[in-house]
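Take our chain:
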Amino acid sequence: MIKNYLKMAWRNLIKHKGHTVINVFGLGVGMACFLLILFFVKDESSFDKFHQDYERIYRVTEVNYTEGGENYLANAYSAIGPALQNDFPEFEAFVRLHIEEFSVANGPEKKFQEPLFAFADSTFWKVLDFELLAGDEENALAAPFSIVITETMAKKYFGEKDAMGKTLKVEGQNDFQVTGILKDLPKNSHLQFDFLASFISLRQLQGGWMFNNWYWPPMYTYVKVPEGVDVAGVEAKFPGMVEKYLGKLTAEQRGYKMQAMEDIHTTTDYANELGKTTNKTYLYILTTTAFLILAIACVNFMNLSLARSISRSGEVGVRKVFGAIREQIVFQYLSESILVTIISAVIGFGFFMLAMPAFNGLTEKSLTVQLSDIPLILGGLFIIALVVGFLSGIYPALFLSGFSPAAILKGKVAKQSPFAGLFKKALITFQFVISAALIISTCIIYFQLQFMRNSALGFDKEQTVVLEVRSLPDQTRIKTFKDRLNQLPQVKGAAVSSRIPGHEGFYDYNVLPEGESAENNMLFMRLETDLDFSGLYQFEIVAGRGFDNRLSTDSLAYLINETAAAQLGWGENDLNKKLNMGSLSQDGSFRAVHTGNVIGIVKDFNFVSLHSDVDPVVISIIPNSQPYMQGKISVKLAPGNLKESMAAIEKEWRQFSTASQFEYFFLDDSVERMYDAEKQLGQVFLTFSSICIILACLGLFAMTTLLAAQLKKEIGIRKVLGASIGSLVLLMSKGYLQLIAISFVIASIITYLVMEKWLENFAYHIQMQVWYFLMAGGVLGLISFLTMSFKSLKAAYGNPVDALRYE
C-alpha cells in the first residue's frame, strides 16, 4: 500500500516537472541558506571553548574612568597578575602574555620577521589548554631563554628534523632553546601566536622593570577561578586593590574587570584587542535572519502545495467517486508532500556543500564540514523536512477530502473556504514583511557604511604609506632614513610617530595643568610624533600654531585637540600655559614626567573608528632619550606610478636596514578595515535579502497561479463582456499589491525601531530618511508586480472559450 502511494506520488512529481522544480529548488535553497548562516554563527560562538575549563577562565581587563565615560582596554599591565595572586585566594592561577614582533633565525638562510612572538609565565598550562606535542608543561617555560614553538614553525625552521633542544636566534643576539612543540593553535582561538618564550627572558631582553609595572608595557592577563566563585564579588574588591598599590586618586580613575573567556571574541567594546572580534548583536541578527529565510522557504512550499492542490481537486473528486475514503486521500497528499520535502532536504544539503567556498569568501572564513557534523546536519534537515511536509500536506488534504465529489467536480471548492483566503493572506503578509525588512535594513547598513567611508576624519589619509620600524637600532637612527626619503622625487614628505591615527588606539596619560592640585588631574590620550607629523597629516589648527621644525623650543611644546581644550576649559587666551604629563603616586601626589607649553589647538580628529567619540589628545614630540617610540614612519607619496614609488622606498630601506624586513601598510586601507564588520554584515544582508525576495516572489507566483485558477471562469465572462487586459491584470493584482503595501508598512515600523537601536552603536551615524524606506518599497513593489504580471497577463490573454467550454 505505502509503495503504491509513493509510486503515485513520484508519478505526480514527474508529470508536473515545473511545479516540482520550483518547489524543490525553493525549499532546498532556504535550507541551504539556513545551514550556512547557522554554521557561521556556530563557528563565531565557539571561540575559546576548546579549553577544558573555559567557563572558569577570565581575562583581567582595565577600565579608565574619564569625563567622556568609561574606556575599556583588553590589556592590563604586568603588576596586576602578582597583585591578584597575593591579595585574592579566590584565584587558582594566573598567566601573563606579552606579544611583540621579533626577528627569528636558524642560520643565515632561515631568518624571518615573526609578528606573533609571545612571552608567557611558566604557569601557562595551569590556565590555558593548548596541546603540547613535545616537552614538559611544568618546565617548558621555567628557564630563561627557553621557547615553545608551534609544529608549523618547527617545520619552517628545522624541516623534518627534531626541533627539541635546538636553538633559535632572536633579534640577532639571543639564543633561545626549543623546550616544547605546540600543536598549531585552533582557528577559533582569540589568542594566536607562533612562538611562546619564557616570561623571565624579558628580564634579560628589556630589563627587570617590566616584571612588576602598573603603567607599561601592556600585557594580557588570564586567571582561572575555582568552581562556584562569585566573580562579581571578586570584582567588587578590585577598587581596594588599586587603592592599596596605586593610591586613592588612581582608584578613582582606573579599575579592573574580569571578562569571561567565552565572551572575548563576541565583545567589541575593548581597545587593544589581540585579534578581530565580532559584535554579538550581529550574531543575533544573523541567527534571526537564518530562521526567517527558512520560514519564507517553508511558507513558499506551503503556498505552492496549496496552489497545486486546488488544480488537482478534480483528481480528488474522481478518486472519491471510485470509492477512495478520506484517510486514503489524506495519506496520499501527505506522502507526496513529505517525499518532496525529503528530496528538497537532500538537494539543500548539496547546495550547502557547493555554496560553502563562496560563503567563506563572503564572510572571510574557512569553514569546513567535518565528518562528525554530517549526521547532525542530515538529522536536522530530515526533521525539518518531516515537519514542513506534514504541515504542507495536511491542510489541503483535509480541506479537499472533506468535500463531496459533486462539489469538487463542479469547481465549488474555492468558494467554500473563507479560512483558506485568510490563511493565504497571512502567508503572503508574513513573507513580504520579512523581505521588506531585510531590504530596508540592507539599505540603511549600506548608507551608514558609505557615511563612515566618506566622513572627514580630521586628517589626510590619502597617498600615505606607513612603514614599520621594529628594531631599536633602526629606531635610534630613523632620522637618517627620513632625510633620505625626503630626497626622493616620489615622496612629498615623511614623519615619525609612535602610533598612527586610523590604525590603532592611543594610550592614556595623566595630565595636570601647572598650578593645579593633583586631584584635578585628567586622563588624556597621547600621540608622540616628530615636528613634521601634524603638518604631514594636515591637522587643522583652530587656535595658536602648529609645530615648527625651525624652532628648537618646539621639541618641548604640545598640541591639544578641541576635546582636550574643552575639558581643560582653555581657549585661545590660554595658549602657552604649561601642561604636565605623568602619573599619580601612591600618596596622591602627581609625578610629572613631561612638561611643555601648549602652543596650539587642533580640530578634533578621529584616531579610532566612528563607533567612538573623540577622546582628549595631547600631541607631544618624541624626546631623544626615547628612540623606542619611533616605531612608525609615515610617507606621503607624490602623484605617479605607485609601483615605482614603493620600489624606490624599498630600495632606500634595504640600504638603511640590512637586518629588518620591509613592512608597510597604506593608511586608507587601514581606515577601511575598521569597518570590516559592517561591510561584511552589509554583504551578507544583501545576499540573503536577495534570496528572500526570490523565494517570496516564488510564493507570490504560486498564489497568482492559485488566483488565476479560481477566477478562470470570471475572467472568461469579463472578457466576453468586453473587459480590457489592463482591468483583468488589475483584478488579479490589486489584492496582492494591497497586502504587499500593508507588509511594507509593518516592516518599516519594525525596521525603524531595530535599525535605530543598531545605529546607536556608532558615535557618528546617519539620520534615517523617508526616502530610504520609499526606495526599498519601490524596489519590492516593482519586483512583486512584475512577478504577478507574468501569470496575470497569461490568464488575461487566455481564450474565454477554454474557461466557459463546459458551462
Notes: The chain is about 50% helix and 20% strand. The chain has a mean pLDDT of 81. Residues 711 and 732 are 8 Å apart (CA to CA).
